[in-house]
Amino acid sequence: MALSRSARWTAVATAAASFLAVAASSAPTQGAPGIGDTYFPNLGNGGFDARHYALDVAYDPDTDRLDGRTTLTARATESLSSFDLDLQKLDVTRVEVNGRRADFTRDGDELHITPHGVLREHRTFTVTVTYGGVPEALSGPIVFGSDYGWMKTPDGVFVACEPNAASTWFPSSDHPSDKATYDIRIKAPKGLTGVSNGRLVSTYDKGGSTYTHWRESRPMATYLATATIGKFDVKTGRTPSGIPIYVAIDPVLANSNTVDVYAVTAAATDYWSRVFGPYPFEETGAIVDDMPEAGFSLEVQSKPAYSAVRNETTIVHELAHQWFGDSVSVERWKDIWLNEGFATYAQWLWAEHQGTRSAHDSFLAGYDSRPADSSFWQTVVADPQRDTMFASAVYQRGAMTLQALRERIGDRAFFKLLPAWTHLHRYGNADTGQFIRLAEKVSGQQLDDLFHKWLYTAGKPAL
Ligand SMILES: [Zn+2]
């Protein structure tokens, strides 16, 4: 994102107790309402692993009403007598598990589902939820004070959900540690275009509506899903290195658009593929919409979403996130610097590549301009706290950490480390400790002191 501008069993003493423990662990449970993230205790769910979402979304901008049906294919990680999905506010009319009607209750943002029979550990099951209503954007301090999520535009809707707004428009295990593949089908009034993740499977008009089917066949975090709808001019093709590209721009922006979004997207996708490793997705692109109130852009998987015309440095930032955030996703939200510090550092690398400013000078500009008593230095980058998870220090001090690392281990090790990281955790999740260990392995150096000073300690680090 960019702002413009176990319970572990203790040793069991007796054979009888051991037997009881085994018996207890195989009895069906009720799952868990959260995945264990201290910033968002109720996001994600325990007891199953989401594998594939089939989302059907019908949206009418005149009434602002969404009618949806979500079929989630999941694998039980324990025997379940019931389980939860996350869904904020919308009304649920029907739930089926493995094709049979299931009971459900609502408790805040939890949709608690009790299937007809027990779901056995390791078995795959499907849950289909039929729901609808008028989705509400979220607000509060988290996303630079802006609204975010499902946001109405003059001609449709702009959908950008980091960190916790996916469950305002589809029932899900709404946490980046539970990634899945997607089929997303959008029904909108004829003349509007539905833009989503991955590749376009089909689009056709029928009975006054336009139907669009997108498929994201690479694992995706819920917050990176979109179903942005509106009038769009679409340009498709391939980048110079051959990656398919799809750029949708709201036609009202045609005259104010001073950046060639298509050309910059193509060039940055190709350049990052050389620096960070092979491009992880089937298509690159952009969605440029007319939603200036949103004030931010988001690294929506395969097609970053820009809420207005944004500059080149924002585009290269969001595309760097395709590696850092989208392909390699955070295990817990406190690790968010692994997304934002890296995408900000990518902006410095881009300037270096363009010959306008070295990353060393970008580092010094950020370091020297902030006195030691600035509140900027008080953020602990490796655990910035929920409401300040997008604090500028997560971006800037995160990027400074990477430059400090580069100057310590040298260019050769540093530019080996970045693609090693994206390769090792491709399509998965990772945390800060894993990055530190990999940096030590690739460089052959002990780096605890550097990371302790830059990531885990409040205060301005001495150079
Ligand atoms: Zn970002």
From TrEMBL:
Enzyme Commission numbers on file: 3.4.11.2
Catalytic activity entry: Release of an N-terminal amino acid, Xaa-|-Yaa- from a peptide, amide or arylamide. Xaa is preferably Ala, but may be most amino acids including Pro (slow action). When a terminal hydrophobic residue is followed by a prolyl residue, the two may be released as an intact Xaa-Pro dipeptide
Key word Signal present: yes
Cofactor: Zn(2+)
Gene3D superfamilies on file: Neutral Protease Domain 2, tricorn interacting facor f3 domain
Pfam families in UniProt: Peptidase_M1, Peptidase_M1_N
Chain ranges of the Peptidase M1 membrane alanine aminopeptidase domain: 306-454
Residue ranges of every copy of the Aminopeptidase N-like N-terminal domain listed in the record: 51-224
UniProt KW keywords: Hydrolase, Metal-binding, Metalloprotease, Protease, Signal, Zinc
Signal peptide bounds: 1-23
Enzyme class: hydrolase
CDD domains named among the record's database cross-references: M1_APN_like
Family of the protein in this entry: Belongs to the peptidase M1 family.
The name this protein goes by in its record: Aminopeptidase N
